[in-house]
Predict the 3D structure of the following.
Amino acid sequence: MNILIIGSGGRESAFAWKIAQSPQLTQLYIAPGNAGTGRYGQNVPLKVTDFDGIADFVLQHSIDMVLVGPEEPLVKGIHDYFLDRTDLRDIPVIGPQRAGAQLEGSKDFAKQFMVRHGVPTAASRSFDKATLADGLAYLETQKLPIVLKADGLAAGKGVLICTTLDEAKKELQAMLADAKFGEASSKVVIEEYLTGIELSVFVLTDGDSYKILPAAKDYKRIGEGDTGLNTGGMGSVSPVPFADNEFLDKVEERIIVPTINGLKKDGIPYKGFIFIGLMNVGGDPYVIEYNVRMGDPETESVLPRIDSDLLDLLQGVAKGDLFERSFTLSPKTAATVVLVSGGYPGNFESGKAISNVENVKDSIVFHAGTKEENGVVQTAGGRVLAVTALEDTLFDALQQATADAGRIYFEGKYFRKDIGFDLL
Ligand code: AMP
Ligand code: GLY
């Protein structure tokens, strides 16, 4: 099979690494990819939202399946675009159509979906510009802290946790009246604050049956001890020690089954990944968010723990016979440490030469923000590399990944040395 992966981050590097191991693979392409994905396949200089360009490439290179990494092309309807064209209709796209992608593209849609199908989540109400006064009055009746969420995609910045009523009112005003997050905050979900420990569960579905992928925990803050600004993710571990079988059974029964059945009841076809962001509140799972893709850097910890052929599973998704496909997981623990450019998530410089990656022997190095110019691999983004170790114990995996992160060099390199150690 000829496969095209859409995206350019650590997540897509992990997909490329895993799919390159499949005996069913003929040729792998990654659009646009990065300096690392080029080792597993061929990079194609196309933007992830250039649907016409992607279509031409797919037809010219006899692509048999398209795997979409990031949310933007899904929310913008790449899957619908393929279905709408008679010459592309039969080429499977892994990732939901626009209707299903609304689970991530609109927080209000996701909340209504959860309420409709009895999926446990924080209590909430939504407001727009016309109902701003009602929103301000509603805030007066709520406990603090309180969570404000821009309805649409806001590059991971649209969630505000307000600790005073004054701050909450100002922020609601800024989001609705002053378009703080542009069109994304033309509607705002005001949500009850949940206290607990976060983790993520990933599901692969053909719209009918599903496989529950390994759970993971990511570390979002830039600083050690989970301090400082939010980032795209500084590291991850899988499995999650506090998500035992009893908890995961609750997740399946209370969240995964009603989610899949809810999609069916609502007549929303869904072929792809569902990333369920959860809060463990005293042993009970609550959904914080749905994403319609895999997480980054969670994918870098999750995929190394899947022993089965991912391409075979994706074919099951495409053909609608996922339930028949073999699915075996590794009992080992994966730990991922992300190397970032100095200054990230604020301003940072790019174009720094990366060296010593070849000295990493016992971890997998997934590229994220990298590019190759004149034979030199350089930094080209905030998150540069993700280093994943797979070991028998969490302690060994953490030690290995952290030590290997230290072996790589580029000017301004920073990484957290405490990823996962809080879980020991
Ligand atoms: P999101 O952009 O939806 O991933 O939200 C960003 C972060 O805000 C989450 O990872 C949580 O840490 C936090 N968060 C979101 N919703 C809630 C909530 N209802 N209660 C507590 N924290 C939340
Ligand atoms: N690591 C969080 C995300 O991918 O959204």
